Amino acid sequence: MPMASRRCSWGADVWDNPALLEHEEAAVDGSFFSTHFSPDTDEPAARAFVDTYRTRYGIDPAGGDAVSYDAVRLFLEAAARAGSLDADAVRRELLATERYAGATYISHYNEVRHPTKSAVIMTIADGVKRFYQQVDP
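Below the sequence we write its predicted structure tokens.
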């Protein structure tokens, strides 16, 4: 039974869950959703992450995998710049992060440590998530 069609529905990053497309009765074809990441990226650092992930796990990474990878990398880079694991020093270095390019892209952090980062827009066509566009800060 083909997926029912719904035009111009919008969702958020939770739609990046593979379970969304497991139910044939889900009326999501033609919909769009925002997320942190697409495995169809052409960005070199993100491409390296995708290729390594596919080799290791045999599947494409999702947005949650990408931001988890970046969280660890950001911490390690900040700790290296701080020269210690002191929480205040690492926090200062995280706040000083600019133009981070990993699986995702972070332009910078604001004064309350919220990232200004790219957003990826995906669409669902014929029951498959597809990259639509990336919006950079």
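Residues 29 and 126 are 6 Å apart (CA to CA).
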